[in-house]
Structure formats: structure tokens, C-alpha cells
Task: structure prediction
Amino acid sequence: MAIRQGLLALLSRGPRYGYQLRAEFEASTGATWPLNIGQVYTTLSRLERDGLVAPGEQDDQGRVVYTITEAGRAEMARWFGTPVAQADRPRDELVIKLAMAVTAGADVRPIIQAQRTATMGTLQRLTRARRANAEDPAQRLVLDSMIFQAEAEQRWLDHCEAVLAASPQTQERQA
Amino acid sequence: MSFDPVVRLADVGRVHGDGPGAVTALSEVNLAVGAGELVAVMGPSGSGKSTLLNVAGGLDRPTSGDVVVEDVSLTRLPAGELAALRRRHVGYVFQDLNLIPSLTALENVTLPRELDGIRFRDARRQALEVLAEVGLAEVADRFPDEISGGQRQRVAIARALAGERRLILADEPTGALDTPTGDEILQLLRARCDAGAAVLLVTHEPRYAAWADRVVFLRDGRVADTAAAPMESAR
Ligand SMILES: Nc1ncnc2c1ncn2[C@@H]1O[C@H](COP(=O)(O)OP(=O)(O)OP(=O)(O)O)[C@@H](O)[C@H]1O
Ligand SMILES: [Mg+2]
Result:
């Protein structure tokens, strides 16, 4: 999980309190990855156990400032230097739904159309959010990533429609 | 809110040829685009997107139904008046740009305004303004083959935008541009739209269609479905 390394990256800019880390994490990811404060403190204590961060003294309000260690910087550098594997994503319900619809001999076109309209709605919403957040480069890149993903789904839907329209098997079923 | 369309297609059909060889490019298309509205048209190749744009801008006539631009029905308009209305109100970005290679960027943008009967000095001033708006002030005196593909695309857009036309029709204006450059083109169209123009955009790229207030999907010349931007007031 990248929360660990994300917190290290934020700490590499200077010591931070837990609540600051949470706010900065959300700001950098365009609020697409909300963290609760419990996750932040759990992660910080594991980082401390592994010697990647060091806590300071409690201040008079009981708050603790965390500082990244040399080992922490090395871990962050290792993270930035390692490509992310094409993860075993959770199986995509849409893909399964269309595959099942084809297998069951259902009319797939209305399913594709409804999905395309919904995905376009998502894409429109993301595009508006990106226009509103154009100044912050980190947020912008996160939104861009989601735009590319929605776009890929849309293209795939077009592809499905074209393939099914050309397939004698589905032609027969719909005739 | 009353909806006052800049262009309205009512039950529009377009059939090429007749008899057994007839090709139906559009049928029963109903579509209205209001001032300040950006509508994207998507659909597979051959689904009638360019035909829809041509009919909406009076470059092609429907074989059935009616097209109304700025409250004028184009159906029985004599050719001369149709051409005048088109020049006054419609800016067109063609799928293949249609820039004149022997004219500079500035001259390409100025020429149609001069043809509109505007004095050369005014036409040139307007052209310089709109070239600056699309970020091309520095290359105004270069010829189309002396600028990049993205810059050529922006010249074609500048030409369509010059003269404050109320209806902008753009057929694949992002062509083969990379995504940041394509986004800039959409930014330009969106800005015109927000300034009160009606824009009809043909694109096969979902990312550009997503800039629109509404997305119309064509299939076999018919409107298959429409996606409206979420959070928009109902019309
Ligand atoms: N002048 C013509 N004569 C006969 N058929 C035509 C003519 N112009 C267009 N068509 C046909 O009308 C249909 C719609 O064409 P149109 O150019 O509008 O498609 P399009 O959606 O713009 O396609 P593309 O994405 O490839 O640009 C096609 O089947 C095309 O072959
Ligand atoms: Mg076309």
C-alpha cells in the first residue's frame, strides 16, 4: 500500500504533525483518496517501528511532530525508483456483466448504451473538476489519470459494440 | 429559464441519391443548441456526424425536416440568402482544416471576413485579435507549411471564430493532436461558448466530448442516446 510511502514523501519536505499529513495527502491526491486520521496514526506508528520516521517530544497540546529518517528517505527513493506492477485489480463488474450478457444471449446493445451514457457523465464531471483545479499540478494529474481511465472504458465500450455488430453469432441472436 | 436555440434541427433526414442505391445519412434527427451551449456529437465512422454538421450550418440541405438558424428556416431560403446567413452567423472548422497554402496564417483568417464585405483594415484587425486569442500572434505571418500541425489547427479555429459568429461548427478540430494541445483547443471552444456562442463539436474522442454540456450519440444516422452533464439545471 502506498500510504506509507506517500507519508514519507510528505515528510521529506520537513517535519509534520499527523493532522497536517492527512490534509496534505488529500490535497495532493485531489481528494480522490480520503484518509481517516486513524489510518494516518496507525501508519506512522508502523513507520516508527521500522525506523523510517522518528517522533519528537509531545507539545503542550499533546501533539507529536514526525521527522523522516535516513532509512525513510532511502525507502522513499526506492519507491520512486520502482515501477508499479500492473496490479491484480479487483475483477471488473462491467467486464463480467457484458461477458455474461453475451453468453446468456441477451441483447447487449442497450447495456452498452446505458453504460456509455453513465461513463460519459462521469467523464463530464471529472472534466469539470479538472477545469476548476487546473492550478494545482498534483491534483490535476490525479484527475487526468481518472479521465484517462474513464476514456479507456468508453473506448472499450465502442469496441464491444463494433465487435458485436460484426459478429455473426450475435447478429443471429438478435435477428 | 427559456431556451432560445441558435440552431434547431426538427425531424431532419438526409438521403443521398434515390432508388435502391439511396443512402440514408440522417433520419428523424431532433436537436437544438442554445446560446452558451456546447454539444458534442459522437458515433462510429459513417454514422452521419459530418452530415449533421453540414446540415446544421447550411452547407448541405436536408431531404426532409427543417433546420432553423437564428430564427430563420433554411429550408426554402434562396441560395444567395443562405450563403449570406452562413457567412454572418456560422463559423466552420473543417475535418481537413481547408487552409489555403499560399496565404499566411493572418491572411487565411482575414480572407473570409473580407469576403463578408468587411473593410480590409477591420478584417485584418479582427483577424489579429482572434489569432492572439488562440495564442498565435507570433506566427501570424507564416504560411501553413511553416507552422506545426497543432498551430495549423488553431489557425483553422481562429478563422471560424473571427467575427463573433454565434454558431460554431467544428468537425474533429483536435485531429491527431496530443492531449494537452487538444485540451487547449477545447478550452478555446469552451471559452467562446461561455461568451454566448452555440458550439456543435464532432469528435470520436470521449475526453473532448466530456467538455460538452450534452453529448449526442449517433448510430446509422439516428440519435441513439444523449448524455447530459450532471448537476446541470434541467431545460
Ligand atoms: N455525397 C454523398 N453521397 C452518398 N453518400 C454519402 C455522401 N456523403 C456522405 N454519404 C454517406 O452518408 C453516411 C454518413 O456520412 P458522414 O460523412 O456524415 O459520416 P461521419 O459520421 O462523419 O463519418 P466519419 O467519422 O468517418 O467522418 C455514410 O454512409 C456516407 O457514406
Ligand atoms: Mg466525418
Remarks:
- The mean pLDDT of chain B is 89.
